[in-house]
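Weekly puzzle thread! Below is a chain. First person to post its structure in token form gets bragging rights.
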Amino acid sequence: MIQRIMVAGGGTGGHLFPGLAVVGELRRRVPDLEVHFVGTARGIEARILPERGEHLDLLKVTPLKGQGLGARFKSFGRIPSAMREAGALMRAFDPDLVLGVGGYASGPVLLAASLSGRPSAVLEQNAYVGMTNRILARFVDRAYISFEETAQVFGKSKAVMTGNPVRYEFVEHSRLALADPEGFEARARNILVLGGSQGARKLNEDVPHALARLGGLPEGARIIHQTGQSMRNNVEATYRELGIDAEVVTFIDDMARAYSNAALVIARAGATTLAELCAIGRPSILIPFPYAADDHQAKNAEALERLGAAICIRESNLERDELGRLIEDLLGDESRRRAMSQAARAHGKPDAAAAIVDDMLAWLDGGQGMGDPEPIPSSRPSSDPARALSTAPAYRVASPEMLLRRVSHRPRRPVVVDGAVWE
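Winning reply:
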């Protein structure tokens, strides 16, 4: 039974929110569940979790990737003390399970959990496994994955294909789509543009001009363009100058309903966006953020494109005229959009959070859980950083003076992130 869980990592919403979805499902089943989050002051968790009234401890750890040589040496130097801090936190909280959600803050916590013999698991949301989870692959007991091609990184005895957890309202809308697919598709008429995530300026600038090249919208259709706070006025002015009637919003209260009402979605390709698209089953044009770590957004979008569920356009190849023609072709081809919807829905896992919790409870209660994916190669490239760590001497967690800041609790209230309201 899980009575206490420690959730480590974050940095971005794509890491943090799947973890929150799993915690939400656990709380539905274990009302008195105790949850401690561990992150960093520079991550999104430092803003979101206190707003929700969650318990959060902050580690003094910094990223390794995307840093200069000097900053990278400093980051390496902080790892031992961060592991000691994490070990002290675990001894004080004594969690039944430590869950890593990705991001550099999860590394020291999951390593300390493994070396102290505590059950540990990670969520891997992307089609390409990032540095932190690659290092942790040899140490954790479970890896809940969203793309089958990532199973080989963790090994067949650990990887469980569950999909990326989404908010509960997406589960409800996915059931409607499955119960009445014809009616669901008939009611979906809007063009939904999601331009509010980090680095989406190109979408906010180019998509209105692409839509201006349409000969007109289908009857009853509307353009819903979510921009984020900083670009709303500019985008609204652009539509006005182009003579296009569009609803431009800073954020969307009911994102699941917005997806459900969309005949076509134009968006970036973060893991959470793709999980939500697939949970409900929406055709999409995906324009990956070109500076995402390890180019993971492009890998996500290309994986979905191979399934026939989306069309991927690299930002460097984005042309307004071509995008306009593509949008017009898709809006005029209902059968193609329905095929894309079905492919997305076939890949979607709206019950991912429930599946993960089912497996966790069965595993920790002595059962075998959900079982393993198909057999996969066990060989790993010699350059894998986890190989070097696996041969390192055992590390004994000491009892250092705590260098942590405890974030105070506040009443939970809705938080707006990347244009969506998180309750």
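Puzzle host: Confirmed. Bonus trivia for everyone else. The radius of gyration is 22 Å.
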